[in-house]
Design brief:
Mean pLDDT of chain B: 92
Shape of chain B: globular
Distance between the termini of chain B: 34 Å
Number of strands of chain A: 2
Number of strands of chain B: 10
Low-confidence stretches of chain B: none
CATH class of chain A: Mainly Alpha
Low-confidence stretches of chain A: none
Largest sheet of chain A: 2 strands, antiparallel
CATH topology of the largest domain in chain B: Rossmann fold
Order of helices and strands of chain A: HHHHEEHHHHHHH
CATH architecture of chain A: Orthogonal Bundle
CATH topology of chain A: ABC transporter involved in vitamin B12 uptake, BtuC
Oligomer: heterodimer
Structural class of chain B: alpha/beta
Helix content of chain A: over 70%
Largest sheet of chain B: 6 strands, mixed
CATH class of the largest domain in chain B: Alpha Beta
Radius of gyration of chain B: 17 Å
Bound molecules: adenosine-5'-triphosphate, magnesium ion
Structural class of chain A: mainly alpha
Order of helices and strands of chain B: EEEHEEHEHHHHHEHEHEEHH
Number of domains of chain B: 2
Strand order of the largest sheet of chain B: 6-7-8-3-9-10
Number of helices of chain B: 11
CATH superfamily of the largest domain in chain B: P-loop containing nucleotide triphosphate hydrolases
CATH architecture of the largest domain in chain B: 3-Layer(aba) Sandwich
Radius of gyration of chain A: 19 Å
Strand content of chain B: 25-35%
Strand order of the largest sheet of chain A: 1-2
Distance between the termini of chain A: 36 Å
Largest interface: A-B, 21 and 27 residues
Shape of chain A: globular
Amino acid sequence: MNLFIQAVITGVLVGGIYALVTLGLTLIFGVMDIGNAAQAAFAILAAYIVYWLSSLYHVDPFIGMILATGLLFVMGFYLYKYIVYKTSGLMAFALLYFLSIFLESTMVFVWGNTYRGIKVPYLSGSLQIYGYYIPLDRFIGFLMVSAVLAIIAYVLKYTYFGKAIRATMQNPYAAALMGINVDRIYQVTFGIGIALSGIAGVILGTIYSFYPSLQGVWIGLMFAIVVFGGMGSLSGTLIGSIIIGIISSLVATYVSSVWAPLVAYVILVLTLWIKPSGIKGRKI
Amino acid sequence: MLEVKNLEVSYGQLKVLWGINFTVKKDEIVTIIGPNGAGKTTTLKTIIGLLKEDKGEIYIKGEKVNNLPVHERVKKKIALVPEGCEIFPYLTVQENLDLGAYLSDARKRYKENLESVFKLFPRLKERRNQLAGTLSGGERQMLAIGRALMSAPEIVMFDEPTLGLAPNLAVEVLKTIKGLNETGYTILLVEQNVKMALKISHRGYVIENGRLILSGEADELMRNKHVKEAYLGL
Ligand SMILES: Nc1ncnc2c1ncn2[C@@H]1O[C@H](COP(=O)(O)OP(=O)(O)OP(=O)(O)O)[C@@H](O)[C@H]1O
Ligand SMILES: [Mg+2]
C-alpha cells in the first residue's frame, strides 16, 4: 500500500509537468490547427539556456527561466509571423519537424549530446509528509505548474484577451468581425504556446538530466497526450497527463521502469481504437 | 455613410461581381435584393474586408477603407450580422455579447449597451449562461444582432437575418431592424423576403449575376414590373 501511494504521488507530480510541456502544443493545435512538431525541441532549448546561464554566469535558475521564457515567446511570435503563417497543414508540420531536428543538431553542436542537469542547490532534499517521500524539486515544480495552469485558465475564461483567443479558435471570421486582430491572436498564441513548453523544459531540467535528442522522445509523448486528452482540449490535456503520469509511475514501480515509456503509446492506441475524440470530445 | 464604387470581386478565376455601385446615406435603410448566387453576400463581405476586391473603391463615412483589414474597418463603427449568424457555439450567450464589445470604444459603453440589448431581446437575458450553440435558430439571430449592437455601430449590415425563421418570427426580426433604424442606426439589408424588406426600407438595389440591374425608392421598386414578376410573385 505504501509503495502504491508513493507511486501515485510521484505519478501526479510527473503528470503535472507532462501537462505543462504539452499544454502549449494543445493550445497551438486548438487555436490554429497546427501540430507544432518543434514544441519539445523548444522545451529542451529552454533547459539548455538556463543551464548555460546558471553554470557560466551563475544566474539563478528561476531568473534564467523567466529570461528563457521571454526569449521563447519572442521566437514563437516571429516564427509564426514570418514562417508558419505562410504555410498550412502538412507543410507547416513538415517545416516545424525540420525545425525540431535543426534545433536538436544545433544543440548537439553547441553543448554536445551528453547528459546535463540544472542544479538548484536549495531544492535538493525532500519533504516528508505522513511518511511519504516527496522530492523538493518535484514538489516545487508541481506548484509552479499548478500556478501556470491556473493563470492560463483564468486568462482564457475571464479576460477579453482570453475570450478573443477562444472566439478565434471557434470562428476566426466572426472573431474578425468583432474587431479582433486575428493574425495578432495567432502570433501571440504561438508565442505563448512555445513559452509554456519553455517553462516546462526548465522545470524538467531541474529534476531530470537532459540531452538534445531527448526532444524526440518528448514530442512523441506529447502528441500521445494531446490525442488522449482530446485534440485541442486544455482540460483534457491536464487530465490525460496526470493519468499517463500515474500509470507510468505504477508500471515503473511494479513492473520495471524499462516499460514505463510504453504506457503513453498503449494509451494512444487504445484511445484511437475506443474513443478517437479523446477524453474531452472538443476543443478547450 | 457608405459608398461602393465599381466593385469587382472574384473567387480565384471566377468573377462574381462585375462593377457594383451604390450608396447608403445616414439614417437610411437600404435593401439589396437578388436571386441566390447573385453576389449579395460577396458584396457585404467585401465591404467589411473579409474578401479582397479586384477593383473599385469602398468608402465608410467618407474614408476610403480598401487597404484596411477587417478589425480596422470595424473601428469605423460598421458591423456585419453575417449570413447564418456565425455565433461562437462553445461560448455562452454572455461571452458572445462581451466579444461584441471587444473594441475599446465599445467597452466604455458596455453596461448601457448590454442593458439595451437585453431590453430589446429579453430572451437573451434569460439564456445568458447557456452555450450559444444550444440556442434555437431565432435566438441565434437575436444573439447575432445583439452581438453586433454591443459594438455600438453607426452602420449595421444584415445578411439575410430572417433565413430559416418561421414567418411570424421573420416579421419580428424585420420590425426590430426597422426599430433600430428609427433609433438612429443606418442600415444595409440583404433579404430574400423582398416584400417585407422593401416595406421597411427607404431605397433598394437589385443585383443579378453580379451586376446592378435596378435601383430606386422602395415603393417605386415594389411597383416595378421586373421586381413584381421575379421577386414578388405577382
Ligand atoms: N468561397 C467561395 N468560393 C467560390 N465561389 C464562391 C464562394 N462563395 C461564393 N461563391 C460564388 O459566388 C457567387 C455569389 O455568391 P454569394 O454568396 O455572394 O451569393 P448571394 O447573393 O449571397 O446568394 P444567397 O442568396 O444564396 O445567399 C455564387 O455563384 C457562389 O457560388
Ligand atoms: Mg448570401
